[in-house]
# Entry
Amino acid sequence: MEFSTVLRRRRMVRAFSDRPVDDAVLRRLLRAAQRAPSAGHTQPLELVVVRDPAVRRELSLASWSRGARPEAGALTVVFCGDLAREAERYGARGAGKYLYMDVGYAALLFMLSAVDAGLACAFIGDFHEEHVQAALGLPPRIVPVGMVIVGHGDEAPRPRPWRPVREIVHYERYSPAYDWSGRNLPPRREVAGGG
Ligand SMILES: Cc1cc2nc3c(=O)[nH]c(=O)nc-3n(C[C@H](O)[C@H](O)[C@H](O)COP(=O)(O)O)c2cc1C
# Structure
């Protein structure tokens, strides 16, 4: 499928037929997720594939999501990040910003690959982290960032409005520019050799 078509077709789909997801296709999607960039190639990604209805029910109990439900579709992939791997390398920045970015990129690659394979999925971020950790037996350092439900879609999501591009894209400086001259910023660092 053309990349532009994948981008256009990617929507969160919350209703699915009973058709199962082929194992070989699923493995392809999981490998695509692994190809995501990570800060310093830390590779914090940990994935839990859940097909067992009893475990999916537990995931559902842990989620407040009123749209997509963790039991919908053929299976749920829980996208997790290893907090210790990121924090050892990057401290608080790793534990906060980088962990969620790295795992989020992986989830997006997974979802785009699912669209490319003719499947549908939805991302669920609305859940109690510790309940999900308990349901899956995750150690405390493995943080669940999102769940992706996958299957053969059985709905056409309604078109949704987009903010105009001219409202969100700023060239050279933000407009209207905020004046930072009165603030005490930390000294700027020179980085030898660039990069
Ligand atoms: C960080 C994040 C968390 C989300 N959590 C949920 C969720 O808990 N339940 C749900 O139904 N959709 C969830 N979504 C899906 C968004 O609601 C959806 O992406 C948005 O409405 C735009 O629709 P589209 O993805 O079809 O373009 C989440 C999306 C993101 C990026």
User: Anything to note?
Assistant: The chain has six helices and four strands.
